[in-house]
From TrEMBL:
Protein name in the entry: Large ribosomal subunit protein bL25
Alphabetically ordered keywords of this record: Ribonucleoprotein, Ribosomal protein, RNA-binding, rRNA-binding
Biological source species: Brevundimonas lenta
Low complexity bias: start-end ranges: 204-219
GO terms, molecular function: 5S rRNA binding; structural constituent of ribosome
Top-rank taxon: Bacteria
Amino acid sequence: MAEIILNVDVRDGVGTGGARAARRAGMVPGILYGGDKAPVAISVNEKDFRKSLYTGKLLGHLVTLKYGDESQPVIARDVQFDPVSDRPLHFDLMRVDEKQTIKIEVAVHFINQDQCEAFRQGGSLEVVRHSVEVKVRADHIPEDLIVDLANHKMGDTIRWTDLKGTQDVEPTITDRDFVIASIKTSSAAKAADEIEEAIAEETAAAAEAAADEVPATEQAEGEEAAAAEGETTEG
């Protein structure tokens, strides 16, 4: 079963007024829906909800909802926060069967960036998808999908087939091996390369000019020597 348990109360009051009353009482209001049953207004103790939320294993994962002696598996689909205080204001739970296949967004996690030579060369990671919608059994939802950057090179494009942790999941996009991220040369690195190229060009041009001047100088010196010799002979 799930690692997180949410002990909920059923709210009598619904709508904005009922939600405000729940918050004043130190609760977070929510809605339980799905499973061919009518939606139910519920609430959870805010302190307990915060503890579950900050584990990182609540949103988008299978959890156990308890109401009295009854319990059932649910998926936390959404949590709304206050834009100023970041206080949780509302949440949505969806009823599921543990063995039911569902569609859900799973986060993409990038690891070993410090072991990727491309970033030491000035490369930058451009992320196209921070999460991927997948089809997966409710009790097999992965914590995240992993991109190991250790062996990637400058210019690499990272696709779905490069991800780790996809054994039990199937992407909802099935018509292509879609892009997750790419490693590109940063603008700063490009500027540095352009400066180095300009310096190299100037150095090469200076060396070529210097090489052209040497024969001319030698020729002038030869002519001067020959003239001096002629004057000596005449004398």
